[in-house]
Amino acid sequence: MAYCGKTQRQLQIRLKTLKRTHGVSLNSFPRRFRDQKSARTRLVGGHKVSAPDNVGNVHDAVSIIPTLSIADTFVDFGSRIGNVVAQVALETCVGRCIGIEFQDNLANMSKLLIRGARVDFPNLSKVTIHEADLRAMRPAVREDIDGCSVLFVNNIVFEPTSFAALGDFASSAAGLVLVVVMATVCGRHRPTCPRNFCSVWTLRQRIDVQVSWSSQLHHAYWYTRVVEPYI
């Protein structure tokens, strides 16, 4: 795990200096600070993000999500160091962003870094990070995300049991209206597919997005409900 060599205090001073120079609004910052890729790198407090720690450059996949309102809750399964939930909290009017991360070191890191940046970026107060296993979530965590409306998952490296848990959650979350994943949930889908996920969700669009781990474009999959939920 590599770091940039600066302490949290030094990074906080840097952020305050930027505020004095450019103002408190992110819109007044130079483009390099507002660019989605740059913003995600800075929000993790100077941590040098490598591919195993990072979700990659998935901002294109997140950008296809329709306009979010204060009534929406955005959930990211496998949130790693919190890049995506921070991005959504800062750039949309979403009510809450919840990250679910299995690895305790990454979950604790994201909590620390997001907490430290809230003074300068108040919208990060919308973000909650839970250390949890998608396959065996604690009741309190499950209750917290049950009302989510949008789910994002970089599930490229998911094991079969995690894919199954993802499908079960998406099929049972009553308020969920949109699912965006980086690997198709049902690789052998057919019109008569018996999976619960396929009876509830339909693939609306497949888009090509840039990712950090490859020079080639990667697919992202946008699912909507077969029938809109009653909430």
TrEMBL record:
Single GO MF descriptor: histone H3K79 trimethyltransferase activity
GO terms for cellular component: nucleus
Chief location: nucleus
Keywords: Chromatin regulator, Methyltransferase, Nucleus, S-adenosyl-L-methionine, Transferase
Localization in the cell: Nucleus
Domain DOT1: 68-165
Enzyme nomenclature, EC number: 2.1.1.360
Signal peptide feature range: none
Biological process terms in GO annotation: DNA damage checkpoint signaling; DNA repair; methylation
Top-level EC class: transferase
Any Pfam family: DOT1
Catalysed transformations (reactions): L-lysyl(79)-[histone H3] + 3 S-adenosyl-L-methionine = N(6),N(6),N(6)-trimethyl-L-lysyl(79)-[histone H3] + 3 S-adenosyl-L-homocysteine + 3 H(+)
Name under which the protein is recorded: Histone-lysine N-methyltransferase, H3 lysine-79 specific
Origin species: Phytophthora sojae (strain P6497)
